[in-house]
Design brief:
Blueprint lengths: L44 E9 L2 E15 L5 E12 L10 E5 L8 H8 L2 E3 L14 E3 L9 E6 L7 E2 L2 H7 L2 H18 L7 E7 H15 L6 E7 L14 H5 L1 H10 L11 H22 L5 H15 L3 H6 L6 H7 L7 E2 L7 E2 L13 H21 L31 H10 L4 E7 L7 H8 L12 E6 L9 H19 L3
Parallel strand pairs: 4-7, 4-9, 9-10, 10-13, 13-14
Antiparallel strand pairs: 1-2, 2-3, 3-7, 3-8, 5-6, 11-12
Length: 508
């Protein structure tokens, strides 16, 4: 999961109204966590395991521990918790691919990608991703990426077990640049301590982790570390695409394809219901950009007849009532859509994954009380990680493992230049300096936290040199923000990434 594993906390660099009402992001009203990071270095815990993949057995080593970040005097400022999976006696030796993984938030631990998609152990959900009954299970992951690359899961400072030495020092890490620099320093230290400088290198991020990954791609190459590839899962690069502030019409248009996919899934589309999902989404893309966004830009110049026409077309793509759309000035934000689409059934739809349905105390109100897709995944991931790290891996700690928020003691600092955050320029710069780098992007049709058309818009505005465009590949999945909780999508994502890694490591 992501943007808190996927949740945006601020969408503008300067103070601005928060974009989405749920769940509440870390803010300055929440007390800072205690200074819990030890000032001495601890020894990592190392264990050995096997997994059966078809007719083959993989033997691997897990290293769980803290990586200290020190100041110029050698004093520990923070400890970053990590879990590394390395294949035993690989044919490529020290040149085996190595991938660094993290989730988003800001404020999310790496548990979602770790125990949902990449690692050799996986949280067992229902095949579609629905919440199972407790007690939950951890099973071998037949789609683990360990078959293609060694894996290092990073919990940035303030997430997981990672702590700053003091609450005051935490503010150094709880910012766009501070976060990128600290994770970059972790990667440098890991390459040094575990002698992996000769390995082909990859990073994968989800949600806000894609923001971090894009920024890291440039930070790393500027520090002499060239990536072979970057994997972005549920992408947000330009935060203008997700800020519902007054006067910014872009997010309304960029969400139309996701609204259309959601209405299609819940059988609310009318005549369009008979078309394949991909065709519905493509029609929504074209109309949103070629007609809807232009109409919104005209503002009060629209005639009543034009307003009615746009409302009718938007109703056709969203499953909402035309008069409801007109009452909201042709602009239906995400919370209202989640509440309205299935109001006649007394149900709401999810944010991270709009396939999920929830129900509130009443059918009234403008927005849902909670995100049913988040509610379905948080308990099993929380329980299974805490059991796994202690019982199977033998890492003992009384610290709370901050899975999703709670560990960041101040409002996240995106900067003070009164501009929207946009790390697309960092990604473009990394490509320009390292033209061998490749990029794979995974989109979920039912992801309303980082909508696919918003990510496509950002990618279409990277200003990449034409010679580099063949370095980018994409995958679309009939699932949500964490498409891997849907078993068919998990299998295809693993296959896509294995091919991507191979293509990014062969001599060219």
């Amino acid at each position: 999961m992501a943007l808190l594993p996927s949740l945006l906390c601020l969408l503008q660099a300067a103070p601005a109204p928060p974009p989405a009402p749920r769940p509440s992001p870390p803010d300055s009203a929440r007390p800072a966590p205690p200074a819990t990071a030890p000032l001495t270095e601890e020894k990592p815990v190392v264990t050995h395991h096997t997994i059966r993949l078809g007719a083959r057995t993989l033997s691997y080593t897990v290293t769980a521990g803290m990586m200290p970040l020190r100041d110029e005097k050698g004093v520990i400022e923070a400890n970053i918790f990590f879990m590394a999976y390395t294949l035993d006696n690989p044919p490529a030796g020290g040149r085996r691919p190595l991938m660094f993984s993290f989730n988003g938030g800001p404020g999310s631990a790496s548990v979602w990608l770790h125990l949902g998609a990449l690692g050799p152990r996986r949280v067992k959900l229902e095949d579609e991703g629905w919440l199972p009954a407790s007690p939950y299970e951890l099973v071998d992951n037949q789609q683990t990426w360990l078959d293609a690359t060694d894996l290092v899961f990073i919990d940035p400072v303030g997430t997981g077990f990672s702590r700053a030495a003091t609450a005051e020092l935490g503010r150094k890490f709880w910012s766009l640049r501070g976060d990128i620099e600290s994770v970059g320093q972790f990667i440098r230290l890991y390459l040094t301590r575990y002698e992996r400088w000769a390995s082909p290198l990859f990073v994968v991020g989800e949600s806000y982790g894609t923001t971090r990954a894009a920024g890291l791609s440039d930070w790393l190459v500027n520090h002499g570390i060239a990536l072979n590839g970057v994997v972005l899962v549920s992408t947000i690069l330009n935060f203008e695409t997700a800020d519902w502030s007054t006067g910014n019409d872009l997010p309304y248009a960029l969400l139309v394809p996701t609204y259309a996919a959601t209405a299609w899934y819940h059988r609310k589309l009318g005549p369009l219901q008979q078309a394949p999902l991909a065709q519905v989404v493509e029609q929504a893309r074209r109309w949103a950009m070629n007609e809807y966004l232009i109409a919104l830009a005209r503002g009060d110049q629209l005639t009543p007849a034009e307003v009615r026409q746009i409302a009718e077309r938007l109703a056709g793509f969203t499953g909402l009532d035309r008069t409801f759309i007109e009452r909201h000035n042709l602009r239906v934000d995400l919370g209202r859509f989640e509440k309205e689409l299935l109001r006649d059934q007394g149900r709401t739809v999810g944010r991270l994954d709009t396939r999920f349905k929830g129900f509130d105390a009443t059918a009234g109100g403008d927005t849902p009380e909670f995100d049913p897709s988040m509610a379905a995944i948080r308990p099993p991931y929380t329980a299974m990680f805490n059991d796994y790290v202690r019982r199977e891996l033998g890492y003992k700690s009384d610290l709370e493992y901050y899975i999703l928020g709670g560990g960041i003691g101040s409002r996240w600092d995106f900067g003070s230049d009164n501009e929207y955050v946009d790390v697309g320029e960092s990604l473009r710069s990394a490509f320009a300096k390292n033209p061998h780098m490749r990029l794979y992007i995974a989109f979920g049709y039912y992801d309303a936290a980082t909508p696919l058309f918003a990510a496509e818009y950002s990618l279409n505005h990277l200003r990449l040199d034409p010679s580099l465009k063949d370095r980018i590949s994409r995958g679309y999945f009939e699932a949500g923000h964490m498409m891997y909780i849907h078993l068919p999508s998990l299998a295809r994502l693993s296959k896509d990434v294995a091919g991507f890694i191979q293509g990014a490591t062969v001599a060219r």
